[in-house]
Amino acid sequence: MNNDEIMALEDNFQLKTYRKLPIAVVKGKGSYVWDANGRKYIDFYGGHAVVLVGHCNPRVVKAINEQAKKLVFYSNIVFNDVRAQASELIIKVSPKGLSKVFFCNSGSEANEAALKIARKFTGKDEVISMEGSFHGRTVGALSSTGIEKYRSQIPASPNSVFAKFGDIESLRSLITGRTAAVIMEPIQGMAGIVMADEKYYLDVRELCTQNGIVLIFDEVQSCFGRTGKMFAANHWNITPDIMTCAKGMAGGFPMGAAVISDEIAKTISVGEQGSTFGGGPLACACAKATIETVIDENLMENSTSIGKYIKKRAARMKQIREVRGIGLLLGLKFESDCSGMLPLLLEKGIIAGVADVDKSVLRLMPPLTIGKADVDKLFTAISDVVGDSK
Ligand SMILES: Cc1ncc(COP(=O)(O)O)c(C=O)c1O
Known about the structure:
Elements: H1 3-13, E1 25-29, E2 32-35, E3 40-43, H2 46-49, H3 58-70, H4 81-93, E4 98-104, H5 107-122, E5 126-130, H6 139-143, H7 148-151, E6 160-163, H8 168-174, E7 179-184, E8 187-188, E9 194-195, H9 198-210, E10 214-218, E11 242-245, E12 256-261, H10 262-265, H11 281-296, H12 299-315, E13 320-326, E14 329-334, H13 341-347, E15 350-351, E16 353-354, E17 361-364, H14 372-386
Parallel strand pairs: 3-15, 5-6, 5-7, 7-10, 10-11
Antiparallel strand pairs: 1-2, 2-3, 4-12, 8-9, 11-12, 13-14, 14-17, 16-17
The structure holds pyridoxal-5'-phosphate (PLP).
C-alpha cells in the first residue's frame, strides 16, 4: 500500500481525534523513518518524544525477541525475573529517596495513580497544578491539566486549582488546609518547552515539605535521559515525593510508571493500586534494555552536547528568538505561529512538532542518538523554509 491508500483506509475507520501529517510511516531506524512511498525523514519529533534510543534500537529489538520467545505476559499476581530487574534498575537510577515503582501503561495512568496516592496519603482532596500544564486525557489527569481547551471538554473539577508556573507566590496563595498535592511538569512541554529558574524548583520543594503536600513531578516527557540527566529533577538535585514516567521509558513499547518515596510507599497496601498489563514482562524487558542503552551508550552526554549544538546553530538565525529547554527537549521560538512550517519541513524530509499553547515554538525531541549532521540538515531546511540565515 502507498501513502494515499493507507491514509484513506485509516481515515475511513479510525476515530478522527488527531491532526496528522500527510504521510504513512512504515519503517524506522535510528533517527530516521520511511514512509510507504519509500521517502526518508529525520525524526526530530521522536515519534512524540517516545523514541529515546532511536527507532528499532537493536538492543530493544533483541530484548523484545528474546522475551517474546520466553514469556510475553503474566500479570502481577506472580513474580517475574525481568520485572524484578527492571524495578531494581529504575529505583537505582531514580532520585535518592524514591524507593518503589508502580507500573502502568501510559503517562495518564501514571499521573492518575500519583494523584490518587497523594489524596489517600494526605487524606485531602485538592490538587494544585500549573497553568499551561498537560498531564493526560483520563478524568483525574485531565482535571489537573492547565490547558483550558482540553480541560473544558469535561465539567470543571472542583478539586483542581492552577498556579502560574514559575511564580512561587502564586503557588503559595493557593495552598489551603485541603491541599493534597502539587503536580507539575518540571519542563512544560505542550506549553512551549517552558522552564522556571532553579530557585523556583527549590522553593516549591520546600513549600510542599513545610505544608505536608505531596510534590508530584510529571516526568512523562523528561524521564530517562531526555534532558541530559536521568531525570529533570536531577538538574536541581530535587527529590519529588512521586515522579511519573512514560513516553520513552521502554523505547517505544507502551509503559508508564509512578516512582514513589519510601515514606509514601510504606503506607500503601495490597489492593490499593493495580493494572492488569502494568509491569508485563515484554514491557519490562524493553524498559531494561532502553535504560541500559541510555547509560552504556552515553546518551545523556549526547543529549547535552547535541542540545548545545542546536542552541549554537539556532543563535545564528535571526528569526529564532530564543531556544527553550535543555538536552534534547527543546523549543525554537519564532516570532509568530510556526505551524505552517511543519508541512514545508516535511517536504524537506524533516519531522518536527509545534507547541500546543505557544504556537510560535517549534518542538524538537529527537532520539538521543541523533548526530550533528542531522542537526545541520534541520537548520538548512529551516533556513530554506523561513528564508533566513545570519
Ligand atoms: C507531560 C505529560 N504528561 C502526561 C502525558 C500523558 O501521557 P499518555 O499520552 O501516555 O497518557 C503526556 C502526553 O503527551 C505528557 O506530555
